[in-house]
Amino acid sequence: MKHSSGAFHDSNIVDRSPCYAQTRKHILSEIETWAMDASSEPGYWMFGLAGTGKSTIAFSVCEILKGRKVLAATFFCSRQIPECNNYRLIIPTLSYQLVRFSRTFAMSVKEILAQEPDIVTKRPEVQIGKLLIEPWKAVMKAAQMGSFHPVLVLDALDECQDIAKVLQPLVSAISKKELQGLKFFITSRPEPKIQAELKAYSASGMKEFILHNVEEDIVQKDISVYLQKELQHISPTEEQLCILTKLSQQLFIYAATVVRFVKEADGIARKRKRLLGCIENAANLKDLNALYVEILDMATEKLQDEEMQDDLSIIHTIVSVGKPLTCQTIAELLHAEVESVSNLINRLHAVFYMTEADGPIIIFHKSFYDFFASSKDSKYKYNARTQHESLTFSCLQIMERLCFNICNLPSSFMKDDDVPGFKDKVSKKIPETLNYCCQFWTDHFEIGQTDQLFQKVQEFLIEKGIYWLEAM
């Protein structure tokens, strides 16, 4: 069954970690108590503003419930990764994990897939009926689950496209007790569409927790513990820690970004210098956006104007692409040197990371996108239409390589699975950059449309359209 393994809470695609020991104790204890109480509400919705630590708490909850053997399934949304922001994959992914959790559930799903093998392509309400409700009823009928209720965790719903299309029928099924015996822990930003669905249900069975309303002194104490542990190798003074804690306000992401910014410097002396710079510039680092400006300023302070524009082009491209890409592919999209991209990433470990040496570039936090979307700073101002127009032109140029039977397959009458070494042929003839362009040029075109670009697209479709479809 098609699913998104990248959305599992412990997937290695995204670098996640639990809450620091001795932090978030109250909220984690409350959630664990809710999860283990068979008589408590079937749903728990934790929402909070950007940077308040929702995903870190959700990861900790998963690890705690996994230890208690009640974690049944997880789906961690991510706007950066297509398989993790596709609403069509949420229910199949939850069902796939429940199959491994319950033998009866697995047998029921197997029968359903035998009858309807294309069920994963259906509308979410149909998926919920066939991949969750029907097999779960079989589990309840067999009375296998005992006194505990399995928990499903859905994190960062605001990062999933068209999430209401799944949320509405799922909430409806829970409210009608069609999934009685399952519990759902959900996190999101307080976005109107999500609030509308969940608040409509909250009166009858959805416990709410507003993360940004936690008393400031409790959050500040937790942030202080985190900063002490993470910066202990450079021995900050109590006064310095106090200033950083106050600067963070209630935003764990602020504290985490400062820590990464300090740690990326070479040597203890330079790390201390960066820390001191943050302290001395405290008046100007009043919020997360100001901190991002400081980080970018530091990374580009010795560059000439042309070099500055080149680096900004790289950053804007990373922010704009449809999925995380390697330094090599970013460089090819920009007709730049790979070394230029990798050098910039090495100067910006506070906001970017790669899970492996030649892996894709991932942005630490969604707030970095928000910074560019709202930036009024003339140096870093981001024009989405212009950026996506440029990326569309680049994609079209790269796709000029497309040709008839690009993979040199023996026959169009053979199924892909019957072609020896099919995957190797495809990856060799349609490498990452060309593959990306084929998949995402239409997304860039949708945002960056201009008359000139429209004409270029028409020419491409006439000359290469059939070869593009073949490559897809």
Which descriptors would you attach to this protein?
472 residues, alpha/beta, Rossmann fold, Arc Repressor Mutant, subunit A, two-stranded antiparallel ribbon, 20 helices, 56% helix, repeat, NPHP3-like_N, P-loop_NTPase, Nephrocystin 3-like N-terminal domain-containing protein
Description:
This protein starts with 24 loop residues before the first helix and ends with a helix. The protein is flat and about 70 Å long. The protein has helices spanning 25-36, 54-67, 90-101, 103-115, 124-142, 164-175, 192-205, 216-231, 238-248, 252-263, 267-280, 288-300, 305-320, 327-334, 338-347, 367-374, 384-398, 422-429, 432-448, 451-471, and strands at 43-47, 71-76, 151-155, 183-188, 206-210, 352-354, 361-363. It contains 20 helices and seven strands. The protein has a five-stranded parallel beta sheet. It is an alpha/beta fold and 472 residues long. The chain has four domains: 5-213, 3-Layer(aba) Sandwich (Rossmann fold); 216-286; 305-374, Arc Repressor Mutant, subunit A, CATH 1.10.10; 384-471, no CATH class. It comes from Lentinula lateritia. Keywords: Repeat.
Looking at the overall shape, the CATH architecture of the largest domain is 3-Layer(aba) Sandwich
Structural class: alpha/beta
How much is the average pLDDT? 88
N-to-C span = 21 Å
| Biggest pleated sheet | 5 strands, parallel
For the biggest β-sheet, the strand order reads 2-3-4-1-5
Beta-strand portion reads 5-15%
Protein name: Nephrocystin 3-like N-terminal domain-containing protein
Keywords: Repeat
InterPro entries: NPHP3-like_N, P-loop_NTPase
Domain Nephrocystin 3-like N-terminal: 29-189
